[in-house]
Design brief:
The protein has 464 residues and is α/β, with parallel strands linked by helices. It has 4 domains: 6-166, P-loop containing nucleotide triphosphate hydrolases (Rossmann fold, 3-Layer(aba) Sandwich), CATH 3.40.50; 172-215; 220-313, Winged helix-like DNA-binding domain superfamily/Winged helix DNA-binding domain (Arc Repressor Mutant, subunit A), CATH 1.10.10; 344-463, 3-Layer(aba) Sandwich (Trna Endonuclease, Chain: A, domain 1), CATH 3.40.1350. Helix content is 47%, strand content 16%. The chain has helices at 6-17, 34-42, 57-73, 84-94, 107-113, 117-128, 143-151, 172-176, 184-194, 198-201, 210-217, 228-236, 240-251, 257-264, 268-280, 305-313, 318-322, 326-333, 337-358, 410-420, 440-449, 457-463; strands at 22-27, 47-51, 100-105, 134-140, 163-166, 284-287, 299-302, 370-375, 382-390, 395-402, 427-434, 452-456. It has a 5-stranded parallel beta sheet with strand order 2-3-4-1-5. Helix 4 (84-94) runs parallel beside helix 6. The longest helix has 22 residues, at 337-358. The radius of gyration is 25 Å and the shape is globular.
Length: 464
């Protein structure tokens, strides 16, 4: 069953219907669903699909030749084109009279094996783009290769593409579509545990409890997810050991550059380079207090939920996990899940606010959302605001998110109101989000203030 990706499919369909030469670049992290997207798009179209392999040019050319000829005749053949240029020239000729899609998946493997492939494509695109009905798709999981050798200004193919899309993990709304049997609370927990990467979502069984799913995957040495973070790093980077140490440092509480550097025992200049690569992979994000683009207060957090959960809980329990004591490992993890879910719930609440904005229902027309932290001028102590979004110098929204089983009381709302006054906006709207609900006193206080929206997790699910 194919889920989501409506916007990406709409973009590809629009290109396809143009009838002229189109060249789309699709890239994104491994396991994120790029191949499934391409197969869904071409399933009812005349197409040639070729997946590159990590081998030499001869093997890739043989496979490419077979895919081209099989698509044309329906018969597998041992015939091989003399070169990639001959093979691609043949495809361009096939597309002179009718629409044809050529999708080259894992393009970096092919391009690395044949150094002249990019220049060959450049030559043939320039020669045939005005007469061909070919729709060319190049897809790759190596983010750095696709950005540096396909999309970059100095790359041979620069200026030839007509569209590009970076395929990202699903948001919370799309992940919910995977699971019919999980309770609403369990859907949030699973999103917090594996995030929105399709391949990881498929490892979750919604007929089992969340606890059993954690035991069967993260706490099971034979499962694919147990070794996934380290395996993915080995595929993407040259020195996985130091990358592993940096992610572990962040997962266990080091968030500032100096803290990370101290914890891994490397200079900040070295850590900065590695953090930049992890950010490009979508595994780490650099955050600054809302409204402060370049700040000494910047921190690093783990952006991918599966990586965040794994590095938070697996390494410290590794010894008992490898001995098959999944139940004992889970007993150690369970008391920390509510606290762990706090940041996940913040992200779900942000997605809710974006959905409101796109539906034209937001009281503040914000341009971006983020967290804010700093020193309160009156208390002279560290203060945090979970969510903040500004419309202009006069209007902004502020949000507080509570993932607890107790109803949120008026004190939380009053504290949020005080924190919003650290800024000088004439129009402020406050959002208080709760997993379960609000006390009577909190609801009365919200009515009295007038500029407050109280939203439960159930309210969020109704919209997104």
């Amino acid at each position: 069953m194919f889920i989501g990706r409506k916007r990406e499919l709409a973009t590809l369909d629009k290109l396809y219907k143009s009838g002229k030469f189109e060249f789309a670049v699709i890239y994104g992290r491994r396991r994120v669903g790029k191949t499934a997207l391409i197969n869904q798009f071409i399933k009812d179209k005349k197409s040639i699909y070729f997946m590159g392999i990590e081998s030499n040019a001869k093997q890739n050319l043989e496979n490419f030749s077979n895919d081209i000829l099989e698509a044309g005749t329906g018969i597998q053949t041992s015939t091989t084109f003399l070169s990639f240029q001959d093979a691609l020239e043949y495809v361009f000729q096939l597309a002179m009279k009718e629409r044809l899609v050529l999708a080259i998946d894992e393009y970096p493997y092919v391009a690395r094996s044949s150094k002249s492939l990019a220049s060959t494509l450049q030559l043939l695109i320039d020669r045939h783009k005005h007469s061909s009905k070919l729709m060319l798709i190049l897809c790759g999981s190596s983010m750095s290769y696709m950005e540096d050798h396909v999309l970059a200004y100095k790359a041979p193919l620069y200026g030839r593409r007509t569209a590009q899309m970076k395929v990202l993990p699903f948001d919370f709304a799309d992940t919910c579509q995977y699971f019919k049997h999980f309770s609403d609370t369990d859907k949030a927990l699973v999103y917090g545990i594996v995030g929105g990467t399709p391949q990881y979502l498929l490892q979750m069984d919604d007929k089992l409890s969340v606890a059993d799913n954690i035991k069967n995957t993260f706490l099971n040495p034979t499962s694919s997810i147990f070794e996934e973070p380290e395996n993915l790093l080995k595929q993407e980077v040259r020195e996985p050991a130091l990358y592993n140490a940096i992610i572990t440092a962040i997962a266990t509480g080091a968030s500032r550059m100096a803290e990370i550097s101290s914890k891994v025992g490397e200079p900040t200049s070295v850590c900065a380079s590695y953090l930049k690569n992890l950010t490009a992979l979508g595994l780490i994000q650099k955050e600054s207090p809302y409204g402060e683009k370049a700040s000494r207060k910047s921190i690093y957090t783990i952006a991918d939920n599966m990586f965040r959960f794994w590095y938070r809980f697996v390494p410290e329990n590794n010894s008992i996990i490898t001995r098959g004591a999944a139940d004992l490992a889970y007993q150690r993890i369970a008391p920390h899940l509510t606290d762990y879910m706090g940041k996940v719930f913040e992200e779900i609440c942000k997605q809710y606010l974006w959905a409101l904005l796109l539906d034209g229902k937001s009281p503040v027309d914000f341009g971006e959302l983020g967290r804010w932290w700093g020193t309160g001028p009156s208390s002279h102590s560290q203060t945090e605001i979970d969510i903040m979004g500004e419309q202009d110098k006069d209007s902004a929204l502020f949000g507080e998110c509570k993932w607890t089983n107790e109803n949120v009381d008026a004190r939380v709302l009053e504290k949020l109101g005080k924190r919003s006054k650290l800024f000088h906006y004439s129009h402020v709207h406050l959002y208080l989000f709760a997993k379960c609900g609000f006390t009577k006193g909190c609801m009365e206080k919200a009515d009295e203030m007038g500029n407050v929206t109280l939203a439960t997790y159930s309210d969020i699910l109704e919209l997104i």
